[in-house]
Design goal:
about 260 residues, homodimer, globular, alpha/beta, TIM Barrel, eight-stranded parallel barrel, 2 domains
Amino acid sequence: MIIIGEQINATRKSIAAALEARDEAVIVKAAQSQAAAGAHYLDVNGGDPREGQEARNMEWLIDLVQANTDLPVAVDSANPQAVELGLSKAKKKPILNSVSLEKDRLDGLLPVVSKFDCMVVALLMSDGGTPCGIDDRMANSEQLIKHLTAAGKKIDEIIVDPCFLPVSADAASGRAVIDAIAAIRARWPEIHIGGGCSNISFGLPKRRYVNFALLSQAIYHGMDTGLIDPCVPDIMATILAAEAVAGRDEFCMNYVMGMR
Amino acid sequence: MIIIGEQINATRKSIAAALEARDEAVIVKAAQSQAAAGAHYLDVNGGDPREGQEARNMEWLIDLVQANTDLPVAVDSANPQAVELGLSKAKKKPILNSVSLEKDRLDGLLPVVSKFDCMVVALLMSDGGTPCGIDDRMANSEQLIKHLTAAGKKIDEIIVDPCFLPVSADAASGRAVIDAIAAIRARWPEIHIGGGCSNISFGLPKRRYVNFALLSQAIYHGMDTGLIDPCVPDIMATILAAEAVAGRDEFCMNYVMGMR
């Protein structure tokens, strides 16, 4: 499982405050604790509506993260200026998080995708909205992957985010996204699949149980990338256990090592 | 999900001691706490190697459980005398736990199966051993279900226990049993599938994570019966969450009610 640490995101109050105050300690702690907990990439989001500010935030965050950990970053933005600056600062092959089929976003980011040696998250949203079934997710995957391969990406440089929707709103939405994951895995064996999946439990009590059930089932069907908080021990244990049960951990070595 | 409470089992030290001392309070507490926690059946096992003792234990346990809860029992024994006595004492339609393809066990129990109006657990073991793949589990299911329907059982009175084997011994064993569950579910849509699945984590640290991952994945593929301890809140939450994500809980009503 590829673990992308999700903590450094301006939608979190503590990170937004640290960005505003340029408080390095908060960011360094988030970076180092996620690295120690087993993250493979660190997501970096400096979202800010003020003109030019998101790019400045991105630059500051990436310099800080790279000065204090050895991990590659996931440049998390839909703003072409911030994305390009972020990717240009990356010392190790980064992830662009994310492109989608939304026309403005796609038009703005495809030139950047072509320009950099990076992985890219393909979020299955389009101007028509968020896909909620299997067929629409497959159709959007076909289209978006076509754009990305035309822009020079190999299949194993693409991480499809299938869009996890709340089961509280539609009881079929869990099974739909899991079956879509299985279909995407079957269609493109080399691709990566995953993203932030805690939206599945939106509106429900004790959300972690629903998140863990989704993770276990999605991993069984081919999800191999998680945008998660690796500092929550239960999440990492759930992922390692799900991989062991799904037959992706010979002799359970990863599980046993991870549980130490 | 059909929840069979597993606590009242002579392989547990506290239960063995209570059986020996005929200590009613221990058994009543185990029965009532499991009932309060949401069990639908209470498993009752009075295993004892001494001649005639298992049947005497079974009678004492079942009378006690039925005097103190309204739940039906699962008569847990391979001893025909104990099973027959247990089933004859049952006030509500019980479960016979379990028959298998092992010749002595099958020959001893089939006449009892025919005689009583009961559900029956079909454990897929045979004299050839424990099945570890999909094909052997399907072949054993076909044979055993043939015996049971010939003895008068309807398909929806049968609970197939697919035999959960440790992933620590064979990394493929989790995926094998889960895929077998999916195949059994597809072949007999009305049948019940499940059993005690904690054997999956034998030999591993922090076993609950592995048990929960297996439960989530197995429920997704059609497991609908669990021989579990309902007094462990995490287990019930995991089951309810897995059913919600798998699309078996309209409006997440069971999950929300269960989390109160």
